[in-house]
From TrEMBL:
Residue ranges of domain FAD dependent oxidoreductase in the record: 4-200
Domain BFD-like [2Fe-2S]-binding: 382-436
Name of protein: FAD-dependent oxidoreductase
InterPro entries (UniProt xref): BFD-like_2Fe2S-bd_dom (IPR007419), BFD-like_2Fe2S-bd_dom_sf (IPR041854), FAD-dep_OxRdtase (IPR006076), FAD/NAD-bd_sf (IPR036188), G3P_Oxidase/Oxidoreductase (IPR052745)
Tree of life domain: Bacteria
Pfam families, alphabetized: DAO, Fer2_BFD
Length: 465
């Protein structure tokens, strides 16, 4: 066999499971079709760590709640920004009061702790900046916000350092059952293995096609608001089931210090409707404060963890759920347990449970920054003016284990080009550094996927670009 375990898909769950399995004496490969791991993680690098209160079904609630309990330790270990924010699920009408009362009772029965039902006066004590009229709210002290891409990349980097073989830019085309184990066929190779862990969203070629094809999905519409110019809330504010078209409206204080307003809708609504519905959670939104408007296809809240074929070496995991990040620590441990119970392996003695360190210059005190610049002048050269990211950090993001190979990869690892000018100032500098460090032409540098070249061609024949 080429490998003991092959993980299909380098998304959040694939990377986390690779990390968990890399603790064992196993020969593991992870196959990902994109240039980078976790390429589909939410573009705005801030996610809610839910606690299961809001979930309709019990399985999702359990996965979120267990993941929530593990998240702060993981973030501390991996040095990932984690902000315990707390949350309010609000009711504005009598009908909504009944809905959240029933949600609260259900959450209590599910064994979710640290939650309270607050009346009007108590709500404004918890959240003085809430500038709308509210009757009742479920207050949870469990919820938090984190940077999801950072989490995924940390899992992947440690797995890589502990021997997992990451095969990027390789598309899985087929999975064939052999008399013993499986053959995984990609656009570049054929591999054999004992166990296949399929975390790709279409469930691979063999399993769960019916449940996937029947998904409905929704759209999520985001406003990213600049922090200094608004009444910022300390808690995540959520409101459910506004009307037939609107599933949920959210206001989230992000780990980066901004605020995200989001409208989760069944229909594709545009900027104006997003503005209209956002006003239900936040009065007097000034359009001048809106830094960015994003619109994504969202999820149908599907969770499939199918280990019924584990005796034949196949586990299928499909999570198309808005709380996938929150579930990941628990889900990945569960999958790992299933695998190690079905294959001969032991815990490694030399497992390194540590992420390689790197500098975030803008967060360091001046005297420390000076010492770093004395060692390497590139840490004194600012490339992204908006977010104050230096050339040293960009180079490091490319040279780190599983380093960035695209502009998007640099942005997500460093925060460069995520500022107000959205790369207007630094995009060409990022492309230049990436080309230099990877020994490529600037015209070969892509934004995130094949054919997304940031420069289509040379327009003048200079010696350098
Ligand atoms: C807008 C938005 C907001 C979100 N907010 C939150 C939040 O607040 N809290 C929270 O907990 N979660 C949240 N989520 C959920 C979470 O961020 C995502 O579900 C999760 O990150 C999905 O990303 P993934 O990388 O795990 O993708 P997955 O789809 O799970 O990963 C599968 C991977 O498989 C790869 N792949 C697919 N087919 C093949 C193939 N044939 N061969 C090889 N590789 C293949 C894909 O490229 C992908 O990388 C949000 C999601 C979105 C979109």
């Amino acid at each position: 066999m080429d490998y003991d375990v092959i993980i299909l898909g380098g998304g959040m769950v694939g990377c986390a499971t690779a990390y968990e399995l890399s603790k064992y004496s196993l020969n593991i490969a992870l196959i990902e079709k994109d240039y980078d791991v976790a390429d589909d993680v939410a573009f705005i690098n801030s996610s809610i760590v839910y606690d299961g209160v809001e979930c309709k079904d019990d399985l999702a609630a359990k996965l979120e709640n267990e993941g929530n309990k593990m998240m702060s330790n993981i973030c501390e270990k991996f040095h990932i920004p984690f902000k315990k924010t707390g949350s309010l699920i609000i009711a504005k009408t009598d009908e909504e009061v009944l809905e959240i009362e029933s949600m609260y009772e259900k959450a209590k029965k599910r064994g979710i702790n640290n939650i309270e039902l607050l009346d009007k006066n108590e709500i404004y004590k918890v959240e003085p900046n809430l500038n709308i009229d509210v009757k009742k709210a479920i207050y949870s002290k469990n919820t938090a916000s984190i940077a999801p891409f950072d989490l995924a990349i940390a899992y992947a980097e440690i797995a890589f350092d502990n021997g997992v073989n990451f095969k990027l830019e390789e598309v899985v085309l087929d999975i064939q059952k052999l008399s013993k184990g499986y053959r995984v066929i990609t656009n570049k190779n054929k591999f054999t293995c004992n166990i296949v862990l399929n975390t790709t969203p279409d469930g691979g070629t063999n399993a769960n096609k019916d449940s996937i094809d029947s998904r409905k999905g929704s759209n999520i519409n985001y406003f990213l608001l600049e922090d200094e110019s608004m009444n910022k809330c300390n808690n995540i504010i959520q409101k459910f089931n506004y009307n037939d078209a609107i599933k949920r409206i959210l206001k989230v204080p992000t780990v980066e210090g901004n605020t995200v307003l989001a409208v989760d809708s069944y229909k594709n609504i545009g900027y104006s409707d997003t503005l209209k519905y956002s006003s239900l959670l936040f009065n007097n939104i000034k359009e001048v404060d809106i830094n960015t408007f994003y619109n994504f296809p969202y999820y149908d809240d599907l969770v499939v963890i199918d280990d019924s074929l584990i005796d034949r070496g196949y586990v299928n995991v499909v999570i198309n759920h808005y709380g996938q990040v929150s579930m990941t620590p628990y889900v990945s441990q569960m999958i790992c347990e299933t695998v190690v119970n079905n294959i001969n392996c032991v815990l490694k003695k030399n497992f390194i449970d540590k992420r390689r360190e790197y500098y975030k210059i803008r967060e360091l005190p001046q005297d420390e920054v000076k010492k770093i610049i004395d060692m390497d002048k590139r840490y004194g050269k600012i490339v992204c003016m908006c977010n104050k990211i230096t050339e040293g950090e960009i180079v490091d993001s490319i040279r780190r284990p599983l380093g960035a190979r695209t502009i998007e990869g640099i942005k997500r690892r460093t925060g460069a080009a995520f500022g107000r000018c959205k790369g207007g100032y630094c995009l060409n500098k990022l492309a230049y550094i990436l080309a230099r460090e990877t020994d490529k032409l600037m015209t070969d540098i892509v934004k995130d996927s094949k054919k997304s070249n940031v420069m289509p061609c040379r327009i003048k024949e200079f010696d350098t670009m």
